[in-house]
Amino acid sequence: MLQVSSPSTAGSTGCRIGRVRPAPALLAAAVLSLSACASLPAAQVALPAPLASERPELVEGIGIGRSGSFTVGGVSGTFSRGRDRLELFEIVNWDSATTRYALTLADGTRTDAACKGKAVEVTWRVLAANARPFSFECQWRGDRSAQLAIDAPVLAVGAKAERTGRFTMNGLSLEVRSLHDVQGSPLPLEAPIGYLFSQGGRPVGAIELNGPAPRLWRPAAGEELHEPVTLAALALALLWDPANGTHR
Q1: For every residue of the chain, which 3-state class applies, written as one string?
Q2: What is the C-alpha to C-alpha distance for residues 178 and 188, in angstroms, rounded to an integer?
Q3: Which of 34, 145, 150, 155 is 20 to 30 A off residue 173, Cα-Cα?
Q4: 136 and 187 share a domain?
Q5: Are 130 and 155 in contact (CB under 8 A)?
């Protein structure tokens, strides 16, 4: 989970403490620093208007497990997910991530999503680049049929890699873009902190990924875009993203 310490350091991924020598004074300083880190608020995604002034809903129950159940608003579902990483001589790294979830909708119908993300990174001495940039694809089956495809640009590792894509469902289409800006920080993050959903260039929803309970902004129940935003957001909230560098 990202934390904000001050406007000048909010773009970092939490608090870091250098190597501590075994001296009582330094150990005490380290403990105090860790305590300060624990009290910092979690970093929050910077959203465009009008979403920034709206109240989000929590996607509860996801946590950090490989499988489980979740709820958002008046609907619930189950999920399973995983991530694999294969390294060749510490030069070529293959990353893949899979996500599946089943969602029971408000009208009692059900839809099942199957998603896969993949990327290939090449490292040579001090340089690293994405030989195959991250891509993420999902298919929904059941009482709702839909597709999601997201791709990252070809950039050197360490640079902001804004991902873009599209969600389609029954002739309806949403543009999807990763979000990297954090409230209170002038510096964008390398990995996405969330995703924005738009239609015709107009923001209609968003998902924030930081913390154990993702925050979801979506149209009200009954509106045409309520379900599409929900389905796409849940797929991205459940993804174990290779960009975060965590091995599962």
Answers
A1: CCECCCCCCCCCCCCCCCCCCCCHHHHHHHHHHHHHHHCCCECCECCCCCHHHCCCEECECCCCCCEEEEEECCEEEEEEEEEEEEEECCCEEEEEEEEEEEEECCCCCEEEEEEEEEEEEEEECCEEEEEEEEEEEEEEEECCCEEEEEECCCCECCCCCCCEEEEEECCEEEEEEEECCECCCCCCCCCCCEEEEEECCEEEEEEECCCCCCEEECCCCCCCCHHHHHHHHHHHHHCCCHHHCCCC
A2: 11
A3: 155
A4: yes
A5: yes
The pairing of beta strand 92-104 with beta strand 110-124: antiparallel
Note down the domain range covering 188: 47-244
Nearest to 174 by CA among 229, 230, 112, 227: 229
Burial, 108: exposed, middle or buried (Cβ in 10 Å; 0-12, 13-18, 19+)? exposed
**In a shared domain, residues 3 and 99:** no
If asked whether residues 138 and 15 sit together in one domain, one would say no
Entry pTM: 0.79
- Which are the contacts of 157, defined by CB distance < 8 A and separation ≥ 6? 121, 123, 128, 129, 130
The predicted-structure confidence for 110-155, as pLDDT tens digits, reads as follows 999 999 998 877 666 545 555 568 899 999 999 999 999 999 887 6
Q: How many separate domains does the chain show? A: 2
**Same domain as 238, residue 136:** yes
Query: Could you tell me the CA-to-CA distances from 129 to 153, 165, 221 in Å, in that order?
Result: 11, 21, 43
Instruction: Give pLDDT tens digits for 22-33.
Output: 443 433 344 334
Same domain, 160 and 223: yes
